[in-house]
């Protein structure tokens, strides 16, 4: 989607933007005029290269390292973004990991790790920007949930819990922050061609295609462009929504 310069003057922080959906989202937001902070955990070179490419295209962009599950690191990250780009007006809580396994065999560590990166990370980042957004009486928060959070999935009790939790977080924050001019929404992608799904065996991908009315996985930019729309003034009356981007998989 071409949002033109609809995000001119905005400062976006995209968590987990070194790869996949986050990377595509940072590019879409920058393309619409926002200054973009590209958060990453370990892929420093990829994030730096991404920032350089956006700057070359005329955007303002910086890479920012932080484990979103760590409150001190999140605090330091937000301060750095404020100093270098300005107060965060768009937050995309995208960082996430998978540690799949059947319930009976899943370790508590694997349960906690998935909840931490996705749900705790979104809570901490949202909390860190919320005061300033409420004071400004404007701001947008978008959480990247999943069709799995809506439907559940065998072998993913940790991931489904984190992604369902994000839906609760989204709706609660929408109620709490709406009166202060801050919109909060979620997207629920189906399967997207990223590193997260690259390791799936071909038979599994075939099964996914079969179960998906549109008959294919999504490209990362197909999620990014919906996120950019939700962040834009064109979505000014949308809050508390969970938008499926799943080719019909979740029908
Ligand atoms: P991906 O390619 O595996 O990338 C994950 C990103 O998250 C990376 O940038 C990674 O940083 C970052 N990250 C992980 N843990 C982090 C932490 N603790 N702190 C900061 N950053 C962290 O994933 P993706 O497929 O693009 O998925 C992005 C989001 O969409 C996830 O929340 C995922 O659950 C959700 N989603 C994906 C699909 C799909 O089919 N791919 C479907 C529905 C929803 P490093 O590069 O530094 O490790």
Summarize the structure.
The chain is α/β, with parallel strands linked by helices and 251 residues long. The protein is built from 9 helices and 7 strands.
Folded structure, characterized:
By secondary structure, this protein is α/β, with parallel strands linked by helices. It has helices at 20-31, 44-56, 71-84, 108-136, 147-151, 157-177, 195-198, 202-211, 220-231; strands at residues 11-14, 35-40, 61-65, 90-93, 139-144, 182-189, 242-245. A 7-stranded parallel sheet has the order 3-2-1-4-5-6-7, sandwiched between helices.
Fraction of helical residues: 40-55%
Radius of gyration: 17 Å
List bound small molecules.
NADP nicotinamide-adenine-dinucleotide phosphate
Instruction: Outline the biggest β-sheet.
Output: 7 strands, parallel
Instruction: State the secondary-structure class.
Output: alpha/beta
Order of helices and strands: EHEHEHEHEHHEHHHE
Mean pLDDT: 97
What distance lies between the first and last C-alpha atoms, to the nearest angstrom? 24 Å
Strand content: 5-15%
Return residue spans where pLDDT drops below 50 for at least 5 consecutive residues. Answer: none
Number of helices: 9
How many strand units? 7
Strand order of the largest sheet: 3-2-1-4-5-6-7
- Outline: globular
List keywords for this structure.
single chain; 251 residues; alpha/beta; 48% helix; binds NADP nicotinamide-adenine-dinucleotide phosphate
Helix-strand blueprint:
Elements: E1 11-14, H1 20-31, E2 35-40, H2 44-56, E3 61-65, H3 71-84, E4 90-93, H4 108-136, E5 139-144, H5 147-151, H6 157-177, E6 182-189, H7 195-198, H8 202-211, H9 220-231, E7 242-245
Parallel strand pairs: 1-2, 1-4, 2-3, 4-5, 5-6, 6-7
Helix pairs in contact: 1-9, 3-4, 4-6
The structure holds NADP nicotinamide-adenine-dinucleotide phosphate.
